Amino acid sequence: MLRAEGLSKQYGPVTVLSDVTLDVRAGEIHAIIGENGAGKSTLMRLISGYAHPSDGKLFVDGSSMRFSTPHQAQDAGIVLVHQEILLAEGLTVAENLFLGRELTRGGLVDDRTMRRIAADKLAELGCHVSPNALVRDVALADRQLIQIARALLDAHKLVIFDEPTAVLTGDEVERLLEIILRLKAQDIGVLYISHRLDEVQRLADRLTVLRDGKMVGTFPGRTLSQMDMAELMVGRELSALYPPRGDMARGAPMLSVRNATVPGYAEDISFTVHKGEVLGFAGMIGAGRTELFEGIVGLRPAQAGVELNGTPIHIRSQREAIDAGIGYLTEDRKAKGLLLNERLAPNLTLSALQRFHPALAMNKRRETGALDSAIQSYDIRVKNLKVNAGQLSGGNQQKLLLAKILLTDPSVVIIDEPTRGIDIANKAQIYAFIRQLVGAGKACIVISSEMQELIGICDRILVMRQGRINGEVAGEAMTESNIALLATAEADVSRAALGGHS
Amino acid sequence: MSAVIQSAPPRRERDFAIGWADAGPFLALAALLVIGFLINPDFLSSTNLSNVITRSAFIAIIAVGATFVISSGGLDLSVGSMAAFITGVMIMFMNGMVPHLGTWSVPAGMAIALLAGIACGLVNGLIVTVGKIEPFIATLGTMGIFRALITYLSDGGTIPIDRSLREAYRPVYFGTVAGIPIPILISLAVAAIGSFILYKTKYGRKCAAVGANADVARYSGISIIKTRTIAYLIQGACVAIAAICYVPRLGAATPTTGLLWELQVITAVVIGGTALRGGKGHIWGTVAGAVILELIANLMVLSDFVSEYLVAAVQGVIIIIAMLIQRFSNSK
Questions:
Q1: Residue B197 touches chain A, beta carbons under 8 Å
Q2: Interface of A with B in 328-347 (CB under 8 A)
Q3: Which CATH superfamily is domain A2-240 in?
Q4: CB neighbour burial string for B22-32, b if at least 16 within 10 angstroms, e if fewer
Q5: Cβ of A335 and B215 within 8 Å?
């Protein structure tokens, strides 16, 4: 039904996708898997008309097609369900469904018909929100369904799902998978992109693995174990990604937090991180991990008893946290971490202005020196020093952000999603830096949604669920299934299940 | 893995775009001078030019302060009525002090003007930062308040400066040092100090960071409240300095003093290359922008092509063109 031949995409000198060939048949679920940055999203954008291939051809029902806009792809029956929720919050559900293609009667907007169709479509998907409700008041999972309903409103032969389950919880995922199986039963082709290998294993009739923009291969569904898929994606033994743990004994308590409460996000949380230790925080998206630490470092209102090296401290702002020696690396480096339109040096020294420029006027030479040494020690790859931070690749931005925080010389480093959206070589480097930090006598807290990553670098992992700490795993007990259980189920139940391991 | 390392990040050379934003206002200024000379050779005479630049000094001085406010992501619509209010307060204070201080009431009045300016800036700043009210609305409110206060103080008429002070104060506007009118020297000094603060100090760095992305600044431990409030204080001080230069020109404060200055000030800042949404400020560009506005008005008076009643229309066209240029140089 759809066939892509030799699709390639270059941005300037950089090839993000090269020579990908795949086809989707009617009534088939074809899964695409790959690491972040492997080119999955680029491939989807090419197929659905959001970007033009530099090379290669697309065939729909045997005839060659060129899409220059998403509209043309829609006309050919290809619709994309975006990963992010793109809805206008201030409009009603029905208005969102028909946004940009309102039905009219005699030149006037025909609200009644649109509401009726919207209600029908949503009911078909098992979503029972009122078409008159504002999207703002609708739960996240229902918004995802509204988005799917919007895509399915067009006549469609092929539906592309870009990580549709990333924000959903267990039951909601089940509902979505049912919807996808129903599409398949209606003889519609489905391209399914996901990080969650268990879903891929259940759904996919065939699956294609991408790595570094190249095709590893297409395999029949249900022939690969999840471990097989993971190794195909990464292209080597998984353990090599992570640096060996130091054999250092864990030192004295460095940062201890008692009864931290961030209203609306986290409640009554206590933990201690020791010198020379990497402490992980696992949990589903929305478990309150980021908000907890933003509260602790003074970025949002919170109550917490914080002790640093045994001395109680009171943190009311990010400035006080930095001055006390607690560095926090945000998960959102583009919006909250770096000034994308600024050069590298001002970005690097922004948190440490006072330390760097004690006198009235700024010391340019000192700043350049700091940038040179940061580029050296964190292996930030730049063509010249005059580029803006926004022109760096994700991995280099992350290294710059790490250098920026470490310039304030913190003793405790909190890193939120250390490797989100960066390629695997940079990931390995970041992990090595984290090990170096604790080796140098600092303490490090890593918040991550990637369980593999936490297991690979942490000495101990706390799992949060719905704003509370739901359990702790360390040593041999650090397995994906233990963490996943703690992240999703009540602790009492999970303790019973864990009993077998310990 | 090695393949990943070799792939360089995508990078576009856009140095020329940055260069344009820096040089643009000065190129426009030069072009205007050439056009002016072609239309009317008298235009380039030193008397005419020094008159024009002297007249532009008030806007230039206030606009230096506005560059800080706009760079930090704010906006101040109240500068015109604030100037009128400060002028009124200053004249009333000086007149009242004449029996005690004689001509010494002039420097005392200047000090009061500065204090009043800083206080007005503080009010604006606190409403915007602590009160968390949109700068546009907050300063629209204080604009009305200052304007009403000067109307009330002057009883709808004028507040003239005391006769005994006229001679002593006159040189601040009409005097020259080495042939250069004093207002020009003052505005150069204000711009020099402003560019030192904005480009060479920690505060300037913080100001641009807050304007470029308030979240990044907050996560970097920069106090947004402090940074924005200080920008409004600087704005208040600049308005006071402009008011000090303005008093001897007409020798009185009236309810129409400084009317619509806020528009000229914002126009000067935007023509100068500072983005209205905040970020990096261009102090010298702002000064060039203020001069450009006054030159255009002068050119229209000297030439017969366009009626001078259309000056505001031409200035309006210029601000729109400046914004379009910014838009297109950014989207490249």
A1: no
A2: 328, 330, 335-342, 346
A3: P-loop containing nucleotide triphosphate hydrolases (3.40.50.300)
A4: eebbeebbeeb
A5: yes
Residues whose CB falls within 8 Å of the CB of residue B107, separated by 6 or more in sequence, listed in order? none
Phi, psi for residue A196 in degrees, rounded to 5: -85, 105
Scan residues 250-289 of B and list those with Cβ closer than 8 Å to A.
279
Q: What domain range is B200 assigned to? A: 16-331
Domain count, chain B: 1
Question: For residue B6, is it within any domain?
Answer: no
Counts of helices then strands in chain A (DSSP H, E):
18, 22
The token pair at A462 is: 């706390």
Task: Choose the weakest-confidence range: A182-191, A482-491, B180-189.
Answer: A482-491
The Cβ-side half-sphere exposure at B190, using a 13 Å CA radius, reads 30
- The domain spanning residue B181 has which CATH number? 1.10.3470
What architecture is domain A251-498? 3-Layer(aba) Sandwich (3.40)
Tell me the pLDDT of chain A averaged across its residues. 83
Whether A2-240 and A251-498 share one fold: the answer is yes
Task: Please enumerate in sequence order all residues whose Cβ is within 8 A of that of B100, keeping only pairs 6 or more positions apart, or say none.
Answer: none
In whole angstroms, what is the distance from residue A200 CA to residue A217 CA?
Answer: 15
Q: Is A279 helix (H, G, I), strand (E, B) or coil?
A: strand
Q: What is the pTM of this model?
A: 0.75
The tokens for A24 are 């989707």
Q: Phi then psi for B226, rounded to 5 degrees?
A: -65, -50
- Structure confidence at residue A346 as a pLDDT band (50, 70, 90): confident
Q: Would residue B134 count as lying in a domain?
A: yes
For B161, phi then psi, to 5°, come to -80, 145
Specify burial of residue A69 (Cβ count, 10 A radius: 0-12, 13-18, 19+): exposed
Give the distance from residue A458's alpha carbon to the nearest chain B alpha carbon, in angstroms. Answer: 23
Does residue A425 belong to the interface with chain B, where contact is any CB pair within 8 Å? yes
| In-domain check, residue B230 | yes
Three-class DSSP labels, A306-372? EEECCEEECCCCHHHHHHHCEEEECCCHHHHHCCCCCEHHHHHHHHHHHHHCCCCECCHHHHHHHHH
Query: Is B56 part of a structural domain of the chain?
Result: yes
| Order of all β-strands in the sheet with A443-447 | A326-329, A412-416, A443-447, A278-283, A460-465, A468-474
- State the average pLDDT over residues A251-275: 89
Please tell me which of the candidates A12, A212, A339 has its beta carbon nearest to residue B10.
A12
Chain B residue with Cα closest to A408: B220
Pick the most confident of A289-303, A319-333, B221-235: B221-235
The CA distance from A455 to A481, in Å, is 11
ipTM above 0.90, yes or no: no
Q: Which residues of B touch A345 (CB under 8 A)?
A: none
Per the CB < 8 A criterion, the answer to whether B129 and B135 are in contact is: no
Question: At A311, which amino acid appears?
Answer: T
Strand partners, A208: A32, A218
Question: Considering CB atoms only, which of B201, B202, B212 is closest to A339?
Answer: B212
